[in-house]
Structures are given as C-alpha cells and as structure tokens.
Design brief:
The chain has one domain: TIM Barrel (Alpha-Beta Barrel). Helices cover 39% and strands 14% of the residues. It has eleven helices and ten strands.
Length: 291
C-alpha cells in the first residue's frame, strides 16, 4: 500500500513538474484556424516578434527546437524556419544547402540519408559544436502545436510535399508557408483555402500584381523588406486598411549593428515607423528592447 502511495506521489510530482515547465513558456495556442487569423489581424500598437531560424542567441543552434524553446521562455514569438530534403526524402531543418556551417558534417544535405544526418551535431553561430541534433520538420511541427507559429521558408522542399506534410498534421492553425509570388500563393490556397501565408510584397509592382490576383487578404502577413525607408509608408497605409500585418526583417541589416544599444534603437524605430512584425536573429534582444 505504501509503495502504491509513493508511486502515485512520484507520478503526481512528475506531472506537476512537466506542467510547470510548460507554463514557463510564453505560448501562442490557437484552437482553430479562425482564432489564429483573428490574432494576426492588424491593430494599432501591435508588436509581434519573429525569430529568424529560431535564434542565434545563448549559444544555441539555428533551426532547432532548443533555440525556439529558449526564445519562448523570454517572450511570445513566431519562427521562420528552413526545411530541406535528405537523399532519402526526409524533411530536415537545415538552412544551407551544405552542412559545413551549421553541423559537424560536410557536403550537401541532399547527398546524405536521414540515418547519416542523425550522427551529426549542430553548431552554434560561432561555430562551436553543441549537444543538439538536427530536427526533422515533422518533429518541429509536433513540438510547435499549442506553443507557437512555424513559418516555413522555401528551400528545396517541393511545394506539393510541404502542403502534404501540413495536411497530414492538420497544422493549419500553427504552420504558415513563405511565398515569393502570386503563383506560389495560389498553389497553397488551391490545396487548402485555410492555409496562412507569409507573402513577399516588396515593391509597388509586387503590390499591383497581388491586387490583380484576387487572392484574399485575411490569411497572410506581408514581408516588405529589411529596413526602414520612405517607400514603406505606402505599404503600411494600404495593408493597415486591409487588416494585414507588415513585417520587416532586421536579420541582414540592424542585427549587424555593433552594440546592443544601437540595435535596440533600430528595433524600436522599426515598430514606430509602422511595422507590426519584426523578424530577427536576436528575438530575445528584440523583446528586451521593446518592453
């Protein structure tokens, strides 16, 4: 009897610990696609952080579940991530076509099997080897449910395969796809009209093409570029009227500034200028800058 009580107590303690660990994350948990749509509609003062490839902070490797968990312990965020195909057709989370920069391997991702990739360790941004292994896209989708949004960038995964993986997991409430043109957008919406998009519209010509397409405005954010510039104001004005959030990615620009103070000033300026989503390699730092 005492043994049973002890076992029960240990089980309850384990459950409580797991629940407490989950509660430490700042999650975005959408029960339905419509609930997710509503959250990502424009509202004055809205500020959303997107971790570019997760994060490169805290000596964590990009495109890893570990990196995203670290961000969510600091702030709610969504994440742009990069799936690629192995030789045997497994979707894995590696940005580059080659393995050298981000793992202990070398050569092309597409030339190795998933079994071979599982032997490798991920590196952090400085090139230091970590304890973490490569994640598959399906692992990441399962992990992200109830926690965050994954925005899948376009690498070498065929769009048909990307669409099928999202359908398999019925992940429309927490998995987006990045599209670079109207044809790509139409492909995904034809597959499932509920699919949410991260749409590249960076020029006046891009905007006119989208207007003429007849595609809906209520299931996308818009990426308009990497920096503050006067031409952004036309984009902000148009898309705010449509209820659409506009994203600036500071990964290739302001993230490169030499000091945290310089970066923080630019992060605040991006939002003050009119953006509502800021994508960064340093999402934890962004969250601290805009508190």
């Amino acid at each position: 009897m005492k043994k049973s009580i002890l076992t029960l107590c240990l089980f309850c303690a384990l459950v409580s610990f797991q629940e407490a660990a989950a509660q430490r994350l700042h999650t975005l948990n959408f029960k339905t696609v419509e609930e997710m749509y509503a959250y990502f509609q424009y509202a004055p003062g809205k500020k959303i952080i997107s971790g570019h490839r997760g994060t490169q902070e805290n000596n964590l490797p990009e495109n890893s579940i570990a990196a995203m968990e670290a961000v969510l312990k600091a702030t709610p965020a969504i994440f742009e991530v990069d799936p690629r195909l192995t030789k045997d057709g497994v979707a894995v989370m590696v940005h580059d076509a080659t393995l050298d920069r981000t793992t202990t391997g070398n050569g092309k991702v597409a030339d190795l099997t998933w079994k071979e990739l599982q032997k490798l360790h991920l590196k952090d941004h400085a090139g230091n080897v970590t304890k973490y292994k490569i994640n598959t896209l399906e692992e990441m989708i399962k992990w992200a449910k109830g926690k965050t949004i994954l925005n899948l960038d376009k690498k070498d995964l065929p769009m048909e395969m990307t669409s099928e993986i999202i359908r398999k997991h019925n992940a429309y409430a927490w998995v987006w796809v990045t599209v670079h043109n109207v044809d790509q957008a139409r492909f995904y919406l034809d597959k499932n009209p509920k699919q949410y998009l991260s749409m590249h519209i960076k020029t006046a010509k891009d905007l006119e093409t989208f207007k003429e397409s007849g595609l809906p405005y209520d299931r996308m954010i818009v990426y308009i570029g990497p920096e503050i510039k006067a031409a952004n104001q036309d984009m902000y004005t148009f898309f705010k009227e449509k209820g659409v959030l506009c994203m600036i990615s500071t990964a290739p620009t302001y993230d490169k500034l030499p000091t945290a103070q310089d970066r923080a000033e630019k992060y605040r300026a991006v939002f003050a200028d009119g953006a509502t989503v800021l994508e960064s390699d340093l999402p934890i730092e962004v969250s601290q800058a805009i508190q």
